[in-house]
Write a structure and sequence with these properties.
With about 190 residues, the protein is an alpha+beta fold. Helix content is about 15%, strand content about 30%. It is globular and about 45 Å long. The chain starts with about 25 loop residues before the first strand and ends with a helix. The chain has one domain: Pseudouridine synthase. The strands form 2 sheets. Strands 1, 2, 3, 6, 7, 8 and 9 form a 7-stranded mixed beta sheet that branches.
Length: about 190
């Protein structure tokens, strides 16, 4: 906001200028911020039709047996705890997460998740529904984290690909894993 001053798209209001999509609190990685309404509308439409490439990296509890898989389960508000989301076949919206194992450890698995849809807490809810909640996720996983210094869930938005609104060319952006995430992977080895 300091760099762009008043030039950011105002579509989502003054609290979220230029923001097309969000990532969960305590999630790191790539975000899209639009400087004008034309770009904002274009990228919001790409998000709506699920044409944006979104790859996340996560560490989950347990050892996932299969090398890859897909979770196709609707997500909606949790029926009792309204602050949480859950797999909700009655009132949920379509949600699809593809995952691939990158590395197995003794008690954890490092995975890549590719989002086909983008629901609130989608990866966190889908992986918890498979009994593999994200390491450090105190909302959908165990209350006690085996790594007490960990701040939040181990989830990183690593790659984001869009069609440029003006040129029509595909562009991909990436963010390296943060140091704490890299160090945790080293500890797990």
């Amino acid at each position: 906001m300091a760099h762009c001053k008043e030039d950011l798209s105002g579509i989502n209001g003054v609290m979220r200028p230029g923001i097309v999509h969000r990532i969960d609190m305590d999630t790191t990685g790539v975000l899209i911020v639009c400087k004008n309404d034309f770009s904002h509308n274009s990228i919001a439409e790409q998000l709506k039709v699920h044409s944006i490439t979104r790859k996340y990296y996560a560490i989950v509890h347990g050892v996932i047996k299969e090398d890859e898989g897909t979770v196709d389960a609707p997500i909606g508000r949790h029926p009792i705890d309204r602050k949480k989301m859950s797999v909700n076949h009655k009132n949920g919206r379509d949600a699809i997460t593809h995952y691939r194992v990158l590395k197995r450890f003794q008690q954890f698995t490092y995975i890549e998740c590719r989002l086909e849809t983008g629901r609130t807490h989608q990866i966190r809810v889908h992986m918890a529904s498979l009994h593999h909640p994200l390491l450090g996720d105190r909302v959908y996983g165990p209350a006690k984290c085996p790594f007490p210094s960990l701040q939040g869930q181990t989830l990183h938005a690593g790659i984001l690909g869009i069609i440029h609104p003006r040129t029509g060319k595909y562009m991909e952006f990436s963010a390296p894993l943060p140091d704490y995430f890299q160090e945790l992977l080293e500890k797990l080895k």
